[in-house]
Amino acid sequence: MEENGSKEVITSPELTPELAADLLFISFGISQGDPRLQADTFQYLHLKYPSWLIQDEDREKIVTLASPKIARVVYGARDNPKPEAPPYWQHTRERIDSKPDDYKPIDDTTIHESAKLNAQVMQWVLSGDYNASRFVDKQFFKYTELKISNSTDETLSMIADKMRQRDDYFKVKGRPTGHFQKYVVKGETTGSPFYDQMMQDIKKRVYPSGLPQPRK
Question: Higher-confidence residue: 111 or 23?
């Protein structure tokens, strides 16, 4: 976090391909189908753990480890659709159903391609070398619209704003509890201690004096 103009550097474990794959996988759920939010979470990791880097030779291993996890969630939501199904799949399915000729079918190949693309974004963001002009026209993502901030506080605010926007979108679709309420306010686990820390940092940023007390 930034205090009095200085950036606190957090001691962190080594970013192994296994840890990077877990962070990549969980980022899909946190993003709720918004690539800008997904990139912001990677930027948070870059600012919080500046020693973390993904080497070119490790990227394909990360994709190979993450893809089956993503597939299990996507196929599970597809084969047993419920209101609480992962919003990433809900969002993707709605777009495919509305314009089936514009999108590839969801299968192992497209899941692998999506993981590969996001692993590349993750690598660039963690290295501090993100450049939106590298992306032209991708199936599921508009990376040219991404804006990365080098301020931890601003990044946390951007993540909070985008989480609430996605929560509003899925609330209309019938999901009762949003991610902001679940992970930031209630403090439920994301499945990763590093993203749990991110949610705690968002809470401190949004509610510096503590959570507002409910009205009596």
Answer: 23
Query: How many domains, in total, are found in the chain?
Result: 1
Distance CA 40, CA 170 (A): 20
Per-residue pLDDT reduced to its tens digit, 21-52: 999 999 988 988 888 899 899 999 999 999 99
> Quick check: 67 and 113 in contact, CB under 8 A?
no
Nearest-angstrom CA–CA distance, 37 and 202: 13
User: Is residue 211 included in any domain, yes or no?
Assistant: no
User: Is this model's pTM higher than 0.85 or not?
Assistant: no
Closest residue by Cα to residue 25 from 77, 62, 78: 62
Written as one string, the DSSP assignment of 126-143 is HHT---GGG----SS--G
- Say if residues 174 and 45 touch (Cβ distance below 8 Å): no
